[in-house]
Amino acid sequence: MSKRLPEFEGEALEPARDVSARDIFSLAAPQGSVLKAIRAQQLEVLVKLVPITVFTQALAAILLIFALWDNAPHIQLLVWGSVGIGICVWRGFRARRLRLDAEYRSRKPTSFTHVTRAICTIAFLWLVPPFLWFDAASADAQLYMTVLIAVLLSAGSITMVTVPPAALSYMLVMLVGAITITIKIDNIPMLLMSLIYAASLTWAITANARRFIGHARARLELQEKGEIIELLREFEAAGSGGLWELDHELRIVHVSKDLAGSLSRSPSETIGVHARQFLDPTGRIVNLSSGMRSLFESLEKGEEFKDVAIPSVDSQRWYSLSGKPMRDDRGRIVGWRGVGSDITELRLKGDDAVRTARTDPLTGIANRLLMRELLEEAIIGVSENGDDCAMLVVDLDRFKLVNDTLGHAIGDQLLCKVAARLVKTVGDGGTVGRLGGDEFAIIWTGPSDRAVLAGLALEIIADLSRTIEIGAADLHVGATVGIAIAPEDGVDEEGLMRSADLALYRAKNEGRGGYAFYEQAMFEKAEDMRLLEHDVRQALAQDALSLAYQPIVEAQGGRLVAREALLRWNHATRGAISPETFIPIIEDAGLIHRIGDWVIREACAEAAGWSDGARVAVNISAAQLTGAGLAKTVVSALATSGLEPSRLELEVTETIFLGDDAETLASLERLRALGVRLVIDDFGKGYSSFGYLARAHFSKIKIDSMFARGAAEGDRNCLAIVRAILALADGLGVETTAEGIEEEAQAAAMRDLGIDQLQGYLFGRPAFPEHSSVAPLAKRA
């Protein structure tokens, strides 16, 4: 940043200069913030003196009426006095409101023109006595009128001096009255004295006004320079050396030479131009640049902004802008002042704050901020010149394992090695940056046909799959890549980056170590999930989720032994939505604990009222097993409902063992210690380790419906798996339940195999209870 105070063109920052006659006597609204502030001070001082002025005028009028009462028609005197005193009272009342009522001052502001008109009206009323009643007045009344006109001539030039046009107009009108009197009494010396006195008053009015304006200007400029110095200190990180100022309508008031020169403009060419028209005359850049949108949003909302990077109209230059609103005593925005600089070269090289803010501190490559700017630049090139541009997002496949096993220091070195390989692979065809964590991005400006990009993705995957040596450790990570191409996959920076992220998500789902191009269906699915999440939240607030219960029976006798509580959602427009669809959304949205706790409480309260003594089974997710919160919920639900712990079954799937097995097992042990039964659901479908079955002390194994049906149909593989599960269960001394039984033949086959319990549509579909046992979910949140 320049350590000197940049020269600021225009009145606001120039040294105090002589005050011109235009500044003193012009009725037109002033240009420039300093002159506007001075004009406001002049009017403020006058408004404060109005009560004294109108009181003096009214008192003088009353005394003159008494002096002329015997020499002039009473009706004329009373009409003249009423008009004059009425005008004085009205002006005094308005002055009081202007001083005390901010809303009135805003709605009906005063000005030099208004004040001058009002003063001239009062002055012209004082011409009536000399013209109409002087000749008929007595000698004493004539003397009184002459002295009164002279006194008012002097007083007016003093009380109205802060508004020179009004003071001069008043003085000239009153001079006409004085000259009229001197002519009527044929006193040439007095006439000459009146003219000399008027000239002296004119000089005094001008001198006093010049002094007032000069002092006010110096004071305001000193204050403004202090504010600008503070502004430069506040925004020093931007490396800013150029100054700018807008009025309340966002029109340019001032631009320093430095900033105007970098824009190839002179300061005078920018004055009066609207900021939006100046920065984006075609209205095209704002649609492509998030920085430009952020800038205009801040200006429209009246919010301070700092280091907002925006491209020039031709996208060849980049500027960093910082600014803050200027407010009046009522808090209203009267303008904007800020700093700005050309950062085109600084953001890509150098060692100042601009470059630092755009560099990843670990790897030394571009960070997210610079990548967004470069992507905007590339997209503008696509829109303007038909250039090529693509976005590749690269996610490391096994980075967390390295961090967890070897520590973050090795992980950081690994990221640096990865960054170096990516830079070498990409070469001059694009720019590599780190978005955060183990996620990198590439802005590709080379040929962007799918074949080239697919080849680049494969090369990246191959390079990152090769062994990376760090000290004595040989590391293997690998990568997954998502690809989006401009403009078909995104016409702005946010859209293209979102598309690349969706493509990466698809590539991960299809198996790591591959790549995927963005397709419109990905966005439609993501948007559908977003809308579903919104609807889920509404469903929670409106108690639209409910529990249905499906029976579980003994395989041999058919006796009811349990009911499984199943969460159901009947969408207002989509109808019944499968739990397989909305449960993952609930987990991703962080709502699973809230809903899971409600399900346990509701199920326990419902089961406590069953006369058949059947157990109730509740599904819990891996997310609920973190910490001791689930055990506390179970204890509270059992205590509140009075349900025996042995009548509560908690069902978990094999996926719970994908995480930290020690923490998972500890949570399961806490639950088992309460006396509840633990059930492993969908066994054989996931990732079980037989060791977990013994260590977690499950009470029951539920065989996935796929294997149960396959075994019933005679599938050799399914039969082998079911028999193995039964043997395992028998050895561990746990019960077995076959799920998905819909036909009697399937039930008979399971009985023959020795299954303990059966569950499926053959024995009953999930049914809703006739009453709700606990408070609705929304009220328990």
Helix content: 40-55%
Low-confidence stretches: 1-17, 771-781
The count of β-strands is 21
Q: Any idea of the CATH class of the largest domain?
A: Alpha Beta
Q: Look at the structure and give the mean pLDDT.
A: 83
Strand order of the largest sheet: 13-14-16-17-18-19-20-21
Specify the oligomeric state.
Answer: single chain
Sheet-strand content, in percent, reads: 15-25%
Q: Which class of secondary structure composition applies to the elements?
A: alpha/beta
CATH topology of the largest domain: TIM Barrel
Please name the fourth-level CATH homologous superfamily of the largest domain.
EAL domain
CATH architecture of the largest domain: Alpha-Beta Barrel
What integer value in Å does the Rg equal?
Answer: 43 Å
Gap from first CA to last CA: 53 Å
| Count of all domains | 4
Counting H and I runs of at least 4 residues, what is the number of helices? 30
Keywords: Membrane, Transmembrane, Transmembrane helix
Pfam families: EAL, GGDEF, PAS_4
Domain GGDEF: 387-520
Transmembrane segments: 45-69, 75-93, 114-135, 141-161, 191-209
Write the layout of secondary structure elements.
Layout: H1 21-25, H2 33-68, H3 74-100, H4 102-107, H5 112-125, H6 128-132, H7 139-159, H8 164-184, H9 188-234, E1 242-247, E2 252-255, H10 257-262, H11 267-270, H12 275-279, H13 285-288, H14 290-301, E3 305-311, E4 318-327, E5 333-342, H15 353-356, H16 368-385, E6 390-396, H17 399-406, H18 408-426, E7 430-436, E8 439-444, H19 450-465, E9 468-470, E10 473-475, E11 479-485, H20 493-509, E12 515-517, H21 520-541, E13 545-554, E14 560-571, E15 575-577, H22 579-588, H23 592-607, E16 615-619, H24 629-641, E17 648-653, H25 661-673, E18 677-683, H26 690-696, E19 700-703, H27 705-712, H28 716-732, E20 735-738, H29 744-753, E21 757-759, H30 777-780
Parallel strand pairs: 11-12, 14-16, 16-17, 17-18, 18-19, 19-20, 20-21
Antiparallel strand pairs: 1-2, 1-5, 3-4, 4-5, 6-8, 6-11, 7-8, 9-10, 13-14, 13-21, 14-15
Helix pairs in contact: 2-3, 2-7, 2-9, 5-8, 7-8, 8-9, 17-18, 18-19, 23-24, 27-28, 27-29
